Amino acid sequence: xxxxxxKIFYEASNEKSFTKAxxxxxxSQSAVSIQIKKLEHTLGLQLIExxxxxxxxxxxxxxxxxxxxxxxxxxxxxxxxxxxxxxxxKGKISIGATHNIGEPVLPGIMIEFRKNNPExxxxxxxxxxxxxxxxxxxxxxxxxxxxxxxIEDKEIKVIETEEYPFVVVSGTEVxxxxxxxxxxxxxxxxxxxxxxxxxxxxxxxxxxxxxISINGSIETMKNLIKNGLGFAVLPYYSVYEEIKKxxxxxxxxxxxxxxxxxxxxxxxxxxxxGITKFVEFLESYKINRELFTDRRMR
Length: 298
Known about the structure:
Layout: H1 3-15, H2 18-25, H3 29-43, H4 59-88, E1 92-97, H5 99-102, H6 106-116, E2 121-126, H7 129-138, E3 143-147, E4 156-163, E5 166-170, E6 185-187, H8 191-204, E7 211-213, H9 218-226, E8 232-235, H10 236-245, E9 249-253, E10 260-266, H11 273-284
Parallel strand pairs: 1-2, 1-3, 6-7
Antiparallel strand pairs: 3-10, 4-10, 5-8, 5-9
Helix pairs in contact: 1-2, 1-3, 1-4, 2-3
InterPro entries: LysR_HTH_N, LysR_subst-bd, WH-like_DNA-bd_sf, WH_DNA-bd_sf
GO molecular function: DNA-binding transcription factor activity; transcription cis-regulatory region binding
Pfam families: HTH_1, LysR_substrate
């Protein structure tokens, strides 16, 4: 089997179009069609249903596309790894994190990690969970930190680590949780936020109907809260520094969380020195949680 023919078939199947594949590969549409026919001749199997108006794979085509996707993802990872070695000629890892972890937690993690591992260079990527998994598969990210996320992929290893607790925070002017009924709730529409918000409403015994939807960053929400424009249910780690400085106030901290941070990476990279050291460090890393111990209602 010619790997060049397989690559053309893969791109056409991925794009579901001969035209789009041709543009991506900088060849003519007829060249795409000819090379795929050569691949079919080599295999003795029809891969694409040519009597269909839309691009449609046969059963054999679907199976070949599934297997070729795995091949080209691995090739992409190899190419990215070789570029890193060529450019830096020493240990370097690409670290990804979700916004909830990347903004408040990752800087402190990297400062502590570099104290004992100054030889390891790193790049940082802050993205959503779906993008991080995609970049892991492509090899542009070596290791990712994220909130709990179900990943059904045998190539990816997931290690659960520290708890991911939530708190209800307000400005310092709020004296009692009953005052929240008249204050807007600043809400990000995430699964974990909704989970803890529902729980908090059950605990306090009334609904929080005044709501403002926030599509911006956690930093935006914290600034609004500091200026008395609302309160929010947020990850504890994202407001730790403000709680410590006294610029935000904990109204309620939830009991021990079942939700965890996840360390995620490709299994075949597990023995890579930089990744091994970083995983070992993360498994032992603990943020100072002295301000999270009091669960009494404020």
